[in-house]
From TrEMBL:
Entry-linked SUPFAM superfamilies: PLP-dependent transferases (SSF53383)
Homology family: Belongs to the class-I pyridoxal-phosphate-dependent aminotransferase family.
Annotated ranges, domain Aminotransferase class I/classII large: 30-379
Organism for this UniProt entry: Anaerotignum lactatifermentans
Single GO molecular function: transaminase activity
Record PROSITE patterns: AA_TRANSFER_CLASS_1
EC number in record: 2.6.1.-
Keyword Transferase: yes
Key words of the record: Aminotransferase, Pyridoxal phosphate, Transferase
The protein, known as: Aminotransferase
Cofactor: pyridoxal 5'-phosphate
Length: 387
């Protein structure tokens, strides 16, 4: 057996989502806020276009990195919305953003190469790096400093083996977005180290609140060629089950990733790609979903912040509340189990994302408003019982 894979941790979010589904079978009152999945249906124009294409017999291999129509739509979006100039020939359609990250990491790394990941981080970066034979070097960002990126922390993690830095904004799990001063630090860091790539995971880009704006690092001219942008349709247009993502990079990374792609995936489904083209015309639907997430965010975090010993900063993007618990010195695993048993609420413990210093939980508010309200009420009762 492959030792690298045997040593990998299973995905904590997939495990807890599965556990919640099992528990709901016998206890329908259990509220799962563990998963990272929009509760909305995919907008009808997208589904209709895919169905039409399927009925027309678009069921054969689709040779190439993605249909031209879809890659052109992505190229246009990258320019108009992200300020990123990219070559349509270097856009690769992938089964989800996750696979784009997998391909990009494998394209760049040689065994023992190092990748810097900012902690707390999404659960899959480290296993993907390990599977590619690389080493994940974690930079612990500080809750008390609003998880801001600092030059000192980046420099302390850099070695001659560093080949990539992975960032993710809007962030899962913290809900932070990238601020301009941090983007400047990243740009300077890349300019100081011309041998590394920046992988920018922008999968939650469309879910940003208030007046905040997304910054795409590939829009920075000086480093554009070294930024690999990952994005997709799962979160922005509620298409998780379609498995549609993409990677935008320079020619070298594209060519290496596409070689691996040809031998592992062959191609993406043609009729699903036809559906995805329509996503770019669904701006109204996306905006409606975003507004609902924002209302839920305000309601849920407002209720949690009224509980003694519980604190949640307003997420700036994505659909996660990153909640600090100061309860009887419990750690996040203990709070997770306590809330499951006493509030019937499934959340993700912060330690699954590498936050070991303080007790945080991640709750997804991509969940029906009534369930969220009930979850917050249950958490209040359960926490006040032991305060
Ligand atoms: C930070 C982050 N990146 C990438 C992904 C992958 O998304 P998908 O493969 O569904 O497009 C997720 C999904 O949860 C995520 O949270």
């Amino acid at each position: 057996m492959n030792q690298k894979i045997l040593q990998m941790q299973p995905s904590a979010s997939v495990t807890l989502m599965g556990k919640a589904k099992e528990m709901q079978k016998t206890n329908p009152a259990i509220i799962s806020l563990a998963g990272g999945e929009p509760d909305f249906d995919t907008p009808a124009p997208i589904t209709m276009a895919a169905m039409k294409s399927l009925l027309e017999g678009n069921t054969h291999y689709v040779v190439g990195p993605g249909i031209l129509e879809l890659r052109e739509a992505i190229q246009k979006k990258m320019w108009e919305e992200n300020g990123v100039v990219c070559d349509v020939n270097h856009i690769l359609l992938t089964p989800g953003g996750k696979n784009a990250i997998y391909l990009a990491v494998n394209a760049v790394l040689n065994p023992e190469d190092e990748v810097i990941v900012l902690d707390p981080a999404w659960v899959s970066y480290e296993p993907i790096i390990q599977a590619a034979g690389g080493k994940c070097v974690k930079v612990k960002l500080d809750y008390k400093n609003q998880y801001r990126i600092t030059k000192e922390k980046l420099e302390a993690a850099y070695t001659s083996k560093t080949k990539m830095l992975i960032i993710n904004y809007p962030n899962n799990p913290t809900g932070r977005i990238l601020h301009k001063d941090e983007a400047d630090i990243l740009e300077d860091f890349l300019l100081a180290h011309p041998d590394i790539y920046l992988l920018s995971d922008e999968i939650y880009e469309k879910i940003i609140y208030d007046d905040h704006k997304n910054i795409s690092m590939a829009s920075r001219e000086s480093i554009r060629d070294r930024v690999i942008t990952v994005n997709g349709f799962s979160k922005s247009v509620a298409m998780t089950g379609w498995r549609m993502g993409y990677m935008v990079s320079n020619k070298e990374v594209f060519q290496a990733a596409y070689k691996l792609y040809q031998h592992s995936l062959s191609c993406m489904s043609g009729f699903l790609q036809k559906g995805a083209v329509e996503a770019f015309g669904c701006l109204r639907e996306m905006e409606e979903m975003r507004q609902i997430y924002q209302q839920r965010r305000d309601m849920f975090t407002g209720m949690l912040n009224r509980i003694k010993g519980v604190r949640c900063d307003l997420p700036e993007g994505a659909f996660y509340a990153w909640v600090y618990f100061d309860v009887k010195n419990m750690n996040s695993m203990e709070v997770c189990e306590y809330l499951l048993e006493n509030a019937g609420v499934v959340g993700m413990p912060g330690n699954a994302y590498g936050e070991e210093n303080i007790c945080c939980m991640r709750f997804s508010f991509a969940t029906a408003t009534e369930d969220l309200r009930r979850a917050a009420e249950n958490i209040k009762v359960a926490i006040e019982k032991i305060q």
